């Protein structure tokens, strides 16, 4: 438990032992503060050429992939790389989508699912006072993006709120509770995946990789959040993997909640409205080109 | 109390919830309250875990909650010399701010105190702020810890410390004479986290019951608790005396005592005529204890002179 704050356990590594835990904590805080100056929690919308510019001198595979991306996506919005980028990207992308589509039915649907999440946490033994504030701040924000109400907010206010540490971090924490609750509720389903990535139990995974702020997300988190809220998510992968022959392709994976699958079976395919760009270790938001803008493929 | 604070601030709102929850569900193992003028600063006392060299000890400390609590963890500092943690030094627990990466907002001050108690008998393994005193030294400190609370901070804080001490004295039996120390340190270590969880469950159940209680009742609750604590030293002493011989009886007595407390709670006014028998027992118990201590002290001093 407290082994990691060990001051050197016999083998004295002179250089390392100079650093007391206090110094390390201070250094971590300093790094975070520096990172915060570089980019807000949620950045400005940038054209996709900004992404291309980043890799001007980079690998040819990546450059080719960005060209492909350019045909499908029009813009990118970066989020801060503080370990919460998936949740932060999801928050903004989803709320912006509701703000633009004015989809009240979607809000109703999600509110119903949030109520289920709350019940699940209570059933799992969480004390209500430990999560209720996080829930209420998200619900307030969600209701404020529905246009035509007294409390309605503009896109600028949404950006402002998403950059406000209090609101933004509370929403991230709300997602972390929802994710943890979903994983714990469906231990049988998530257990094998978790064994594969962390070698620990579901409980340990939730304690060390889901609930603490700043812990990065992977497939397990995304699946759980998407299922719990009933919101499909597309993740586009920009990495060096390449296909052997022919045309360069950019892989993507759609996380489709099971209830969506049932509902939509047989009908048109689901196009997730939340689209995130994944580069190893980080998520940003992608904006698809509208159909009319799409160049013929 | 609530009027004084900015309820728009979620940290304040959360902390007030925790205060209320703590007061509605007091424990015999620990007691913690914020300062009157700053709810981000708490005083606490924990009782040394049973069947360890800390048994019977009352250990005071302070807790600082960060402005963005519960997103960031609280920090803990002990004030009573105990032989396990340095005093007036932030201590290293996975639940404290030495390991912000492990902290979860679903924990609480209560959960952290439970973890702290469970940590006392574990091996320090060189952790920052840890001490590795012998069992004898720790037992001596446990005995000493009961005599008077630490002197710390301004008058307001001192008053709170004294109040907490009084409460804990009434709740925890004295240091056992035959300090039979079992070697359950590993077990304790492993159970730390499950303890925290159990606590969380208890908290859930408790909050469910008490969630309708209004904010202004808080101060009233504090007083109830103290009246209560003072009303039942008799039973505590009796159970303390019996402890060594007949465990199941003690269990019975303790349950009885708890029932008694529940009744007391509703009829505090009627308590002006306390049970005579109980008082006699208390007096006898106290006399025996004092005489035993005196004899012990005399013997000790003679032995020293002789040597």
TrEMBL record, chain A:
PROSITE patterns: OTU. The active site is at residues 82, 85, 282. Keywords: Hydrolase, Protease, Thiol protease, Ubl conjugation pathway. The keyword Lipid metabolism does not apply. Residues 74-289 form the OTU domain. One of its GO terms (cellular component) is nucleus. It catalyses: Thiol-dependent hydrolysis of ester, thioester, amide, peptide and isopeptide bonds formed by the C-terminal Gly of ubiquitin (a 76-residue protein attached to proteins as an intracellular targeting signal). Its EC number is 3.4.19.12. CDD domains: AtOTU1-like. PANTHER family: UBIQUITIN THIOESTERASE OTUBAIN-LIKE (PTHR12931:SF15), UBIQUITIN THIOLESTERASE PROTEIN OTUB (PTHR12931). Belongs to the peptidase C65 family. This is Ubiquitin thioesterase.
From TrEMBL, chain B:
Pfam families: UQ_con. Keywords: Membrane, Transmembrane, Transmembrane helix. Residues 10-165 form the UBC core domain. The keyword Membrane applies. Gene3D superfamilies: Ubiquitin Conjugating Enzyme (3.10.110.10). The chain crosses the membrane at residues 278-295. PROSITE patterns: UBC_2. The keyword Transport does not apply. InterPro entries: Ub_conjugating_enzyme, UBC, UBQ-conjugating_enzyme/RWD. This is UBC core domain-containing protein.
């Amino acid at each position: 438990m407290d082994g990691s704050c060990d001051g050197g356990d016999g083998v004295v590594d002179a250089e390392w032992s100079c650093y007391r835990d206090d110094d390390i904590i201070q250094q971590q805080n300093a790094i975070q503060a520096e990172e915060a100056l570089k980019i807000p929690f949620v950045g400005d919308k940038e054209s996709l050429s900004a992404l291309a510019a980043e890799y001007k001198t980079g690998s040819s595979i990546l450059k080719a992939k960005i060209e492909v991306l350019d045909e499908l996506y029009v813009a990118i919005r970066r989020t801060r790389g503080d370990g919460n980028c998936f949740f932060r990207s999801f928050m903004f992308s989803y709320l912006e989508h509701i703000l633009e589509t004015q989809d009240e039915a979607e809000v109703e649907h999600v509110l119903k699912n949030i109520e289920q999440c709350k019940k699940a946490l209570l059933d799992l033994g969480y004390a209500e006072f430990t999560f209720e504030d996080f829930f209420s701040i998200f619900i307030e924000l969600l209701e404020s993006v529905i246009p035509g109400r007294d409390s309605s907010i503009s896109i600028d206010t949404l950006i402002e709120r998403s950059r406000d540490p209090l609101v933004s971090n509370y929403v991230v924490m709300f997602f972390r509770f929802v994710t943890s609750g979903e994983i714990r509720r469906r231990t049988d389903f998530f257990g094998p995946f978790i064994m594969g990535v962390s070698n620990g139990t579901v409980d340990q995974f939730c304690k060390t990789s889901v609930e603490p702020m700043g812990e990065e997300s992977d497939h397990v988190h995304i699946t759980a959040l998407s299922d719990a809220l009933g919101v499909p998510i597309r993740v586009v992968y920009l990495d060096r993997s390449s296909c052997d022959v022919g045309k360069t392709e950019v892989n993507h994976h759609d996380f489709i909640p099971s209830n969506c699958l049932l509902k939509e079976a047989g009908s048109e395919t689901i196009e997730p409205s939340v689209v995130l760009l994944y580069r190893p270790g980080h998520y940003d938001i992608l904006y698809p080109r509208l159909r009319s803008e799409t160049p013929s493929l | 109390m609530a009027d004084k604070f900015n309820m728009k601030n979620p940290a304040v709102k959360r902390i007030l919830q925790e205060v209320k929850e703590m007061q509605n569900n007091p424990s015999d193992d620990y007691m913690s309250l914020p300062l009157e003028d700053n709810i981000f600063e708490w005083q606490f006392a924990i009782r040394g875990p049973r069947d360890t060299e800390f048994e019977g000890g009352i250990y005071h400390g302070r807790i600082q909650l960060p402005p963005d609590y519960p997103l960031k963890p609280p920090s803990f500092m002990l004030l009573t010399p105990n032989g396990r943690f340095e005093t007036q030094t932030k201590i290293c627990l996975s639940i404290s701010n030495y390991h912000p990466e492990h902290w979860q907002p679903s924990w609480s001050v209560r959960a952290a105190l439970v973890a702290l108690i469970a940590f006392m008998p574990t091996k320090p393994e060189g952790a920052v702020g840890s001490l590795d005193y012998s069992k004898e030294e720790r037992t001596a400190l446990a005995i000493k810890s009961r005599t008077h609370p630490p002197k710390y901070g301004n008058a307001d804080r001192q008053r709170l410390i004294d109040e907490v001490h009084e409460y804990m004295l009434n709740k925890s039996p004295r240091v056992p004479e035959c300090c039979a120390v079992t070697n359950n340190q590993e077990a304790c270590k492993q159970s730390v986290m499950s303890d925290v969880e159990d606590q969380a469950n208890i908290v859930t159940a408790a909050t469910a019951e008490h969630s309708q209680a209004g904010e202004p009742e808080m101060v009233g609750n504090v007083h109830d608790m103290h009246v209560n604590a003072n009303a039942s030293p008799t039973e505590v002493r009796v159970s303390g005396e019996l402890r060594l011989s007949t465990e199941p009886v003690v269990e019975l007595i303790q349950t009885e005592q708890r029932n008694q407390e529940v009744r007391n709670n509703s009829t505090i006014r009627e308590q002006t005529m306390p049970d005579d028998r109980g008082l006699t027992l208390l007096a006898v118990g106290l006399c025996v204890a004092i005489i035993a201590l005196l004899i012990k002290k005399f013997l000790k001093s003679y032995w020293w002179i002789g040597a």
